[in-house]
Amino acid sequence: MTIDPVLIQQVINGLSLGAMYALLALGFTLVYGILELINFAHFNVFMVSSFIGMWALELLGCPGRARC
Fold first, then answer.
1. What's the predicted TM-score (pTM) here?
2. How far apart are CA 63 and CA 68, in angstroms?
3. Which residue has the higher pLDDT, 1 or 54?
4. Fewest Cβ atoms nearer than 10 Å: which of 32, 42, 61, 65?
5. Minimal CA–CA distance to 23: which of 39, 43, 48?
6. Are 18 and 32 in contact (CB under 8 A)?
7. Alpha carbon of residue 6 to chain centroid
8. pLDDT at 68 exceeding the cut of 60
9. In the chain, how long is the greatest CA-to-CA distance?
10. Do the Cβ atoms of 35 and 53 come closer than 8 Å?
11. What are the CA-CA distances from residue 34 to residues 27, 28, 53, 62 (Å)?
12. Of 57, 33, 30, which Cα lies nearest the Cα of 45?
């Protein structure tokens, strides 16, 4: 019995997306716990770092949608 490669990829996608949500939630919790103020610019920092990571992968020769 073999495992479908699409299933493995979807499990990896789900884990990585869940990890990103967890990091965002942790950032909100830390900022709110210290300042008692919600910082909505947290999303902007997350998106900028996502784009920087995407550009870095493209510079290394591994486009986002292709397998490395």
1. 0.63
2. 8
3. 54
4. 65
5. 43
6. no
7. 20
8. no
9. 53
10. no
11. 11, 10, 28, 39
12. 30
Q: Name residue 5's amino acid.
A: P
The Cα 27–Cα 43 span in angstroms is 10
For residues 33 and 14, give the distance between their C-alpha atoms in angstroms, rounded to a whole number.
Answer: 28
Name the amino acid, one letter, at 51.
Answer: F
Torsion, Cα 31 48 56 58, to 10 degrees, reads 140
Q: Which two tokens stand for residue 35?
A: 């300042």
Give the per-residue pLDDT at 54: 86
